[in-house]
Amino acid sequence: MIGGVLGSLDRLMSSLPRPALSALASALAILVLSPALAHAQAPPPRIPAGVSVLTVDVGGLTVEEATARLEVELAPRFSAPVIVRVAGRRLSFDPAQARVAFDAAATARRALTATASDVTSVGGGLDGGIILRPTVRHAHLPVRAYAVDLARQVARAPRNAELVLGVRHQRVRRARLGVQLDAVALAHRIDAVLDDPQSPRFVEQRVRRTRPAINANDIRALYRTVITVSKRDFKLRLFKNLKLRKSYSVAVGQRLYPTPEGTFHIQNKQVDPIWSVPHSPWAGELAGTTVEGGSAANPLKARWMGIFDGVGIHGTGEDWSIGSAASHGCIRMHVWDVKDLYPRVPVGTTVLIR
Question: Where does the L,D-TPase catalytic domain lie (predicted)?
């Protein structure tokens, strides 16, 4: 049957004049090609009206047009440096360090299919519009490394208050607060700025102040009483609350038996002290013995304030020696002066000898 139809069609075409045959061929070609032509000429899809990427309106644009607009209006913002202000320093972080990459084409493709229910990447805009965040990526490790390095530069340990001892004056070097920077918090803030071209390219991170263990008031409490001995001018000075209260003339060790220098403390105290005679040639026949307190043979008169290794402050019966280097290492005082000093000086008092 098909063969008969084809034969009839062949006879019909052979009987037609040439102009009619050409017209028929053109008509058949149009019928065959029209679906393909219709498909080729279909307009590209457009992004729905009301869709924007942050402040850039892409509604009604094709993906290609939206990509071009985003490249012009958003891409430059991602390359702008981030100004970082920390502890009075003004620094700059280059986004290239974090390899910031804004994908305008991917953002435009997301805009094409954006709907109000796309809650993971779409926010509600004004007048019911849809606002998308741009598709952007960056490396986080360089940001962390930058923040950690900056925290290391800024960090400063707290400094305790200290007493600066002098034979004539006492001075408190005040404490200083320490500084710490939260590197994790700083890195998070820089990350947020790098991903959002709409935010100001500025980050200010506050530092945390750390307190020292000892402040100036603690120093004053620790050093309520201080004694200083000047070997050069043969003076013992008594300080209360770091202020000079009294000054006494003393004798110090002679050249062969010098009074030790340095910072010491009152170790013990005695009224009419027993003298444990040292094993020394100058002690003569008394070497290694003990002499009762108050004895005429005891050179430690009235009071004793031990300082270091047998060296102490005591009264003397040799008043003529005061104001000279005459002792065997101890600090001699007039009896009336040592009695005056004794109740003013508790055990533990700091003693500076210089």
Answer: 225-354
